[in-house]
């Protein structure tokens, strides 16, 4: 029996479906012993991908790590494992940029197992009129209630900054890879976030998205988080209150719902020589049956577009998918160059400190641009 060592992240959404799938009769009959281990999500942000790939055959990664992985020459491209025709079909089947986000240096480096992006989370039982549609409406709820929280811990302050810039019509570093954001849009985004942060409940300021959603399910001091990575588990919880999910806010009615893509993919390390049985299993995880039935049935969050619009899946999970699919289709894809992850962390710390100090925008924006350029140059020099 072939032993496959595999690593994913420590949450039911990241582990349960993969572990259950590895125990299917078809997998055992094929002679595969897939051993899924898990580590905290933050561990992937701090642990070098090359080191993980040296110890595991399969590694669940986030797409901003692909630049680091390519620099370390530690993953097999999907084209080399499955062929270009299969990769093209995966792209057609996947929602939004779920597959294309793993494309770097002309190849794709991970199977889009799990699709996610920042969306709006709210306690619908505490907000009259439903989810606010625009950032002005979000700000109004914040001023009236003091119960609107920004997700600022870890890398999320920077991620929210990128998302709001995209909603304002300027997806960061897209028009000019050397420029994070213009002064005009940067100031608008910073001033909005600073105002919201000044009213944000301190009870969740140090919490990651999972902890914020868990807090909202049990407490009423946070009734709205306008940008937080969606976790379907909270839309139909086994305990606590339902957290309702909706599209991310827009700058103007009918505009783009600004959101930064998340999700995870399965990378195949170069220490692994995937045989036909393992290839078949991995492609089964991407299949119609798995994505609509098995994965949602085991706490996973599918990446296949038809699953997000499936009536049965939505009925089971409180319309989480239907209510946020438009945001995912339009999600902004972060830079993926080697060094971006380090920038993201430092930029978030800078923004948190600036919000706390109510610092003036111009100095903060200049420092953000300096950080971005420095890490971009460092990545190019590797």
Automatic annotation (TrEMBL):
Signal peptide: none annotated. Keywords: Periplasm, Plasmid. InterPro entries: SBP. Residues 255-266 have a biased composition (Gly residues). Residues 247-267 are annotated as: Disordered. This is Carbohydrate ABC transporter substrate-binding protein.
